[in-house]
Specification:
284 residues; alpha+beta; Phosphorylase Kinase, domain 1; Transferase(Phosphotransferase), domain 1; 2 domains
């Protein structure tokens, strides 16, 4: 990208990522002196109208959210430069590496740390899923979870980022659906465009399994769509069963919601409760 100043305000410092007409930039907000993240969707040969729909959805959703573990919406504007036209979304910058970066750098996580990460992310999901309407992230994976440096006996604070695949019932469309997400971390129902809050639980489980095995879930053996990972870890039977419940192929066999999953994580005996019978809200 050739331009260095956006909207007469944001000084571009670095391109963080680029994919199919979309860019993520690190910039300096000249008005506040703070670093920010700018997501750009530009009109080019790679442009897809579906991307614009998802971009607008992400912008509108972030405007409604306020949680310490989620990037804060700051601004959005139309980009109308001579050589670059499109839309921009500005959000707070979180200076922390992703879980994927931690693993690739050789870091390993103890069972206690895995539980701490799970608890933190479940608290975030409880917030998202209890919005009206519920907010479903649909793309939880190691690269979309940031982790700050550990503090004492605590693994560090997690942050859930990149709401580019977000879905809510407010955007439900019975005539069409969009398959979004990342292979290996998507639950089976997401391939048909049907997602519920428990779809995020599956993705969380797959993310945690990546942390304990160091392997991409798509590379793990499966048994009737069930991820097989027990032989690759030294986890306690209780945590192994809890993770297995998260990644059940059938949504109704998972925990009913993030609150139930958190309670079962803190109190393993809760996992012996009967599986939920109610059908969760389905959105497309």
């Amino acid at each position: 990208m050739e331009i260095s100043i956006l909207n007469d305000r944001y000084e571009i410092n670095q391109q963080l990522s680029r994919k199919a007409g979309r860019q993520t930039l690190l910039a300096l907000d000249r008005e506040t002196g703070e670093q920010v993240v700018i997501k750009l969707l530009t009109f080019s040969s790679e442009f897809e109208w579906e991307s614009l729909k998802l971009f607008e959805r992400e912008t509108q959703t972030l405007k409604t959210l306020s949680h310490p573990t989620i990037p804060k919406y700051l601004n959005s504007f139309e980009l109308n430069e001579e050589d670059t036209k499109g839309f921009a979304l500005v959000q707070t910058y979180i200076a922390a590496p992703s879980l994927e970066s931690h693993i690739k750098s050789g870091r390993t996580f103890s069972e206690v740390e895995i539980k701490q990460i799970a608890e933190s992310l479940l608290e975030t999901l409880i917030y998202l899923h209890t919005q009206h309407p519920p907010v479903i992230h649909r793309d939880i994976k190691p690269s979309n979870v940031l982790l700050v440096n550990r503090s004492g006996n605590y693994v560090g604070q997690t942050y859930l980022v990149d709401f580019g695949a977000v879905q809510t019932a407010a955007f439900k469309n019975s005539d069409s659906f969009t398959v979004v997400g990342t292979y290996g971390y998507m639950p089976p129902e997401q391939f048909s465009g049907r997602t519920t809050p428990v779809s995020d639980l599956y993705s969380l489980g797959a993310t945690l399994i990546y942390l304990v095995t160091g392997q991409h879930p798509a590379n793990l053996m499966t048994d009737d769509l069930q991820l097989e990972f027990g032989q690759s870890t030294t986890l306690s039977p209780e945590l192994t069963r809890w993770l297995q419940r998260l990644v059940q192929p059938t949504p109704s066999q998972r925990f009913a919601n993030a609150s139930e999953a958190l309670e079962a994580l803190k109190n393993p005996q809760v996992q012996e409760l009967e599986l939920p019978q109610s059908n969760p809200l389905v959105v497309r």
